[in-house]
Amino acid sequence: MQVIEGGVTAAKGFEAAAAAAGIKYQDRTDMALIYSTKPCKVAGTFTTNRVKAAPVKWDREIVEKQLKSQAVVVNSGIANACTGAEGMAYCAQTAEETAKVLGVEAESVLVASTGVIGMQLPMEKITKGISQLAKERKSDLTSGTQAAQAIMTTDTKKKEAAVTVEIGDTLVTIGGMAKGSGMIHPNMCTMLAFITTDARISKKALQAALSTDVEDTYNMISVDGDTSTNDTVLLLANGMAGNEKIRYGTREYEAFKEALHYVNESLAKEMAGDGEGATALFEAKIIGADTKAQAKTLAKSIVCSNLTKAAIAGHDANWGRILCAMGYSGAEFDPEKVDLYFESEAGRLQIIENGTALDYSEEKAAEILSQPKVTVIADIKEGDVEAAAWGCDLTHEYITINADYRS
Amino acid sequence: MQVIEGGVTAAKGFEAAAAAAGIKYQDRTDMALIYSTKPCKVAGTFTTNRVKAAPVKWDREIVEKQLKSQAVVVNSGIANACTGAEGMAYCAQTAEETAKVLGVEAESVLVASTGVIGMQLPMEKITKGISQLAKERKSDLTSGTQAAQAIMTTDTKKKEAAVTVEIGDTLVTIGGMAKGSGMIHPNMCTMLAFITTDARISKKALQAALSTDVEDTYNMISVDGDTSTNDTVLLLANGMAGNEKIRYGTREYEAFKEALHYVNESLAKEMAGDGEGATALFEAKIIGADTKAQAKTLAKSIVCSNLTKAAIAGHDANWGRILCAMGYSGAEFDPEKVDLYFESEAGRLQIIENGTALDYSEEKAAEILSQPKVTVIADIKEGDVEAAAWGCDLTHEYITINADYRS
Hints:
Two copies of one chain form a homodimer.
Chain A: E1 2-4, E2 14-19, E3 31-46, H1 54-64, E4 69-75, H2 84-102, E5 109-113, H3 123-136, H4 141-150, E6 159-167, E7 170-179, E8 192-197, H5 203-216, E9 232-237, H6 251-273, E10 281-289, H7 292-304, H8 306-313, H9 319-327, E11 339-344, E12 347-353, E13 356-357, H10 362-369, E14 373-379, E15 385-392, H11 396-402
Parallel strand pairs in A: 4-5, 8-9, 10-14
Antiparallel strand pairs in A: 1-6, 2-3, 3-4, 3-9, 6-7, 7-8, 10-15, 11-12, 11-14, 12-13
């Protein structure tokens, strides 16, 4: 596996474009298109929120019916959630307009939205945006990057990742883009991720690879504990690499999954580190666990703790909050066996041993915690299983962004 | 039932005192004592956090062994959590010193702590504080209020409540004090509540009344989602009212429970409204529910949502966040049947009907949301069960308090 430049246009046969449709923002692009010159198999995972946005319902049906897909159209101004039958009709209309200008079937167009809940889409602007996207789509890396920029809301950085991997003796490419910043969502809505690949792969293998990997990547990040109505991950495969078809459970499947994992984990960590108002990516690693489920529950609880996140913002080695968050996670462990370490590019420092504090240097701890990526490692000394979760610090800027998001 | 002035000294035979022991704060009282002239039956509920502070373990044993209790000694500087065997010994020593100066058994002294996790108690200061408390204890209402002030950490207001209720033809008093601001804790630790009553009541009835009522009061508040290592509610009954003994399941039990509920709910709401950095008490009411569990899950999810709390801070009628928080709560309901209202002393306004927005006045909504107590009411139209939860808004001040709490 090799990490390469690029995003959704890295794989063969994929094109992308961005447009400034003026849906919410007046000074930037706010619509994006991904297009494949050949129809794709598509796998998807969606929000578990009982309140689901119209595009989530639309895409889920396409994925479940195993329809082939050739395009994804996204807007980053309005979420099209809690918009009733009218919102559903606008979603269908968005797919129909896109299908018309691209000369494909409406049922092959996936739709995604992010932004304010409860407002209806301005269809005239959307329609104009779609025409422009269709006209300007290109297969170069720059077009992929422009699309990654157009789907941002309160993100401060565009998020792309791509790798190549040998399947048999054929080089397959997987690339993706995402916007943040949480399955546990940052803003109003939404976390969106779109992955493209030119791999030939069975529908079963494609969905299995995505569904299992989402559990270890996107589902292990948190910005604020609020699960969006629009969360969507789509994985499109057009088969244009020409490899022998990847089947579920084979060695080739494992290689594909490993490459996909790299792209997913990269995008997930970028989202966590770019959480609203964040100044640091905050990683929690549980080691010495007995089971994966236990390790994941403990790790997730740490990165979800408001108090821990506020302490990270203050570069304060307030380890009591971390042990406390592990304690209420619901997972079993013995607090009196826990060793805890802080780690970053400034070094590594043990803070507690067997549940009580060592005589560590607060100064050194503060230095470690002042870096842009901070890791806490908790060894619970029960076995050899590990898991990680990713979040960010909780800052004044988060409040500023969210106390008045709609205006 | 009648609401009266006072707190822990409102009931017959209870005395209180406060002392400035200099444990953490140098310019205020930080230790409190509650003393009953007669031994009390005692009921308690404690944190479910797997990491439990030393005083929680100490008190739980007294409650479980059904020992009689005559005193509660509290410090508000250091939590005595994650302090190992040394911390447990200091906790026992605190009880022994208190017992010695009061002339009672060590096993009749309940201990509570709140403050920083992981530090050991300065026993010399504690011992001096205990002597002072024992000397200065009095049964007047002012002494109760001074005790309520001494247990505060980041609380901005002392929290007291008291009622009288007729049991048979005897007047029984229940009074209490608490510090905030969450079962879901505000600071580092802790929520503490101490209730005293002169009722004669069986141990079974006393514990049952407390355990069931805690579910509807303290367990329905949230400040930041972090459950403390020290959460403790103690209910002491000395029987000095001389009423016929209250037994579990009788009409008198129900009357006692109703009066206890008033005290608990008052203290719980005061804690929520005085959450760290809070400018408003935020109440979520679910009406038209099918079951109590469903209503409680939905209400709690709303007051726990960071995004909703930030919107309340901004007086922003961002109802999409509320529906979103209901959606990920895990409780079943039909989003397309929900009616939503905002209510405060500035009026009441319907915002959505059957899951979609009405053409409401944003100006009026902002006015309603600018009050010190704000209620959101969601009618899910399935039945006639209701439940409420209480939280607060999420402000810049919360970050300021928690980004550097220890220093």
